[in-house]
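Q: Joint fold for the lines below.
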Amino acid sequence: MKKDFVIKGHIIWSDSLKHLNAIPHGYLVCEGGLCTGVFRALPDRYAHLPLKDYGGHLIMPAVYDLHLHAPQLAYCGMGMDLELIDWLNAYAFPEEAKFADLDYARRAYTVFADTLRSSYTARFCCFATMHAPATLLLAELLEASGLRGYVGKVSMDRNAPADLCEPSAEAAARDCEQWIVDMQARFTNIKPMLTPRFIPSCSDALMERLHKLADKYGVPAQSHLSENHDEIAWVKALCPTSKNYASVYDHFGMLSANAVMAHVVYPQDEEITLLKQRRTMVAHCPASNTNLRSGIAPVRRLLSAGVRVGLGSDVAGGESIDMLRAAAEAIQASKLYWRLIDQAAPALTFPEVFYMATKGGGSFFGKAGSFEPGYMLDALVLDDRALRTTCDLTLPQRLERALYRSAEIKLTQKYVDGTPLFEEPVTKP
Amino acid sequence: MKKDFVIKGHIIWSDSLKHLNAIPHGYLVCEGGLCTGVFRALPDRYAHLPLKDYGGHLIMPAVYDLHLHAPQLAYCGMGMDLELIDWLNAYAFPEEAKFADLDYARRAYTVFADTLRSSYTARFCCFATMHAPATLLLAELLEASGLRGYVGKVSMDRNAPADLCEPSAEAAARDCEQWIVDMQARFTNIKPMLTPRFIPSCSDALMERLHKLADKYGVPAQSHLSENHDEIAWVKALCPTSKNYASVYDHFGMLSANAVMAHVVYPQDEEITLLKQRRTMVAHCPASNTNLRSGIAPVRRLLSAGVRVGLGSDVAGGESIDMLRAAAEAIQASKLYWRLIDQAAPALTFPEVFYMATKGGGSFFGKAGSFEPGYMLDALVLDDRALRTTCDLTLPQRLERALYRSAEIKLTQKYVDGTPLFEEPVTKP
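A: Joint structure:
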């Protein structure tokens, strides 16, 4: 039974790409895990609820990480001089192979769950490895963390190292189905997600079987789409009769409002239309696209076309699990896109990326990422006092600084689904 | 009298663009503020010196910030949706005008000195404002911080707001000269630097007078060069007979081994040749060039031509004073340069930016930024235990992670010129 309560502070949230709401010294009422509303003065009818006063701290919706790789945190920030394929072969695949060992998985995934818990992220979509036992263990650790999200056992049955390549599409699908059944039986807050790594590593036979599992169990899907030129050419060679990369996923039912496609750096117009029609969520991962030299995703084009776009850290292609930083990086990448690629694509604005990081990406998880009535209460309480200044700042200015300088501020509390995650010192009466 | 001592830990330093030295559990000997050498085993002749054992921590040379604006820290990370000229008018100029008030300056510069002291930076070149009293106060606070560096009273006598525009070239030069005399009389570790803001804000008459002051007092110079297209066009309009932007500075004696030019985003080949001939230091500021939508500096071209290149945070064009992060950002920017502008310009490597951040930029201050014998001892002791991993890492891998994930590590100690800046818990015997 979730508690009803009130939190007080400088409250900021977004309800659209263009609009920030800011209420100084406001009251955010939570009932049964859901937002009732934000009030300038506390209505009498809530006066009986316990109130936590965060004083001058900022209170904003939590942020959502739509794309990251749990086994990659162990080498995050390393080997960044390598290009994608070399990097996969030097780091990603040898590391993923280690997760056949459940003891190793426990050590590595404990670090991952701890790190994600103490980050700004409330909900996430993450890749694990092909190993069902290790992936169940990851889900167990994440379930215990208090976070919410989707975990994917990775499917690969071609073009993968022998020890990471499933023996057949049939065996892969059988293994995946059992894993889904186990996940749904054991966990409430952490849910399974179909995770074909990407088209080059999944045969048509496997994709067809995953499609059937999606329908049978009602589970969402995640994959990579149009990350870089070589990958796109590879998909074209593997699927010569397909119109384009996105249409291959679409053919297997993998584009829907229940799917996340990471990257989308080089979409054709037809692919953008398809993503829009299917209401597929794009996970924009600016740091990763830079680090792996992929390029810059045309986010302005996607938004203008009405495609849903959220943000992803893509750890360890991205070097940081910090999704406030990812929001700032999305602006930075879009500025270089404008300068170097297309001056008809204005840079993303601070309200736009704030929306993408919160309500935009949050919509993948239901009513999440805003403080509108009926939204699940996911909130961050930010102590930005370390950002000392002699200027008088508005709340949006303070929030902007918190995004750009997230490394310097403190996360005082994180509420996920109406529950505070961290112990706090008892407030004196 | 500086103390002689030994520090022990995992020691990493660079002596060239291509080469990293790493000695695990090594001994760094310091005598009279200078490095004697790094040893795998401590030679008997140093056995009598006090030894500080940093255990598993990383010890690297300190980093150097060749370009930042002290009065801008107050609004660092704000207004990032504005373009250069709007941003200057909305934030930079109104804020700089406040420094006519010495009380305000004391409050703002105290924050700046504290922040810089606790950063990874050991030595710096910073802009102040046009106000001599406030700039002397800044120098006083920085002198007390234990850091080393140059402070510049900004010179502007045209194209500036009335309250920041000096009344005449003559008055500006007189004011500047008195300020230099005061600086040299009062401070040992913080030195004056001629600081014409940039060509558009300095008349020829002022530049000529600053040139004479440079010769008379042997002080170095700093300015901005080729930051963005509009600025370059403006300089061309103001100086129609000049070959190019760099040659204007050169005409006034402002290009030399004793000068720092920030940005250099759009250099012509002739300008690169001139910078190389004059041995001028370029301060590459990747975050600022992105945030202000200037573009990406062609650092590979500069390095290949033999131009000296160090790094700058350019606070508040850049949003972070963290020069380890700036080093990672220099790699990231160069990857996008390669991808989007010129595939004949390979991305900067981790050893290259490490060199630029340490010995490369450090050379502006003398023998600084390396642990070679005779170098001034500027060193950082880094506690990277928060970067938990289940992988076995080499020292260069740990250092690479420390750069990319500098927000997550701790600065245990910073040695500047042979002196530790922070108090440390007494080590148990």
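Q: Anything notable?
A: Chain A has two domains: 5-61+369-420, 63-365. The domain at 5-61+369-420 of chain A is CATH 2.30.40.10 (Urease, subunit C; domain 1).
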